[in-house]
User: What shape does this take?
Amino acid sequence: MTDRFTPTARTTLKRLPKRAEYDRAAIYNILDEGFVCHVGFAVDGRPFVIPTGYARVEDSLYIHGSAASRMLKAIEGGIEVAVTVTLVDGLVLARSAFHHSMNYRSVMVFGRADVVEDPEEKMEALRALTEHIVPGRWAEVRWPDENEMKATLVLRLVINEVSAKVRTGGPIDDEADYALDVWAGEIPLRTFAADPVADQRMEPGIEPPPYVWNYTRTAERSKRP
Amino acid sequence: MTDRFTPTARTTLKRLPKRAEYDRAAIYNILDEGFVCHVGFAVDGRPFVIPTGYARVEDSLYIHGSAASRMLKAIEGGIEVAVTVTLVDGLVLARSAFHHSMNYRSVMVFGRADVVEDPEEKMEALRALTEHIVPGRWAEVRWPDENEMKATLVLRLVINEVSAKVRTGGPIDDEADYALDVWAGEIPLRTFAADPVADQRMEPGIEPPPYVWNYTRTAERSKRP
Assistant: This one.
């Protein structure tokens, strides 16, 4: 396994190539911090983009069923997809309107998504999806039974043709604009988990477990302010 | 103008139709709270999904240039797109793995995106993009000059074929599972703006304006905890 993905025609950034990232660890860090992807596919040449949960297991991306249902109604077997994960880190305010930007980390994976048929791989994918979104959850819940397994659709996309695009730092203004009397900088944006809300039908005495109370996407970024 | 959009083959939800929303005000509220969309399009039948900023002006969605550049290299004139905006409101933890879900609000707009050529409309779109992402900013910054206008690409998508999908509330478990000794409920997720970070080359004495200090996407949801 190489540490760097090979750029292809689709993953070579035409615009601002310095923001491109092909390093495997960097790409996997972004995929592991996010948990919602946007799945794009074409039916009769017309595009669709559907948000859904995902999880990475080694070099595979598993995509949860709801996104798949429309695709699979239209097309039997595998389908060409573009899967994009975007984390927005901040708004970049420059002195000119033109140089306004955002700080973000995004990954786009291209490839053929296939239905996971093997029951063992499918169960493992469902475990990964649950654990990726709420680490610690799988051990506590009732696992899928045979009917639920049949009713769930999981797609596998091998991570091979992929690139990330990353912007960090402050604004870059035109030299003349630095003299303007305008505040410039970054408004950092963060996601945090508010206090958990118990289900109304909760049995008395069941308290939220630590992985719910302390829920965070990353130790550093999602800390409560 | 009607208050409700008419469902089409593409915007009729096949799965969980009770989550569908065609009300104009509800759809526009989602579009106005978000500020990053995922633009899907197909080139030679192969899908791409690119994140970018957007703004709504009445019944048009304006999409910022970076997303457009690859499309427009491939295809002259208008292009069929699917534009999706997704707001994730929380993680829904059920007693069974199968019934785990997310609370979210998403909008998918289908249509032909056209390049905005008219300079007045283009300037108005750039104003809307700036003001949508940071309200109050346009009045303070240097506006685009002629060269910057030429270097900026803006696409217009008329909002006509559109639907929203919304999930709210707690988990819905199988009746037998309510007896399980498992915490269930929602982990609400919120986005907030951390303290602004001034550009290193800021002139002394320029303080962040109120619209930067008090930045929030919505009065209710993005408040600091």
Remarks:
- Residues 96 and 174 of chain A are 8 Å apart (CA to CA).
- Residues 190-225 of chain A form one domain.
- The first strand of chain A starts at residue 20 and ends at 21.
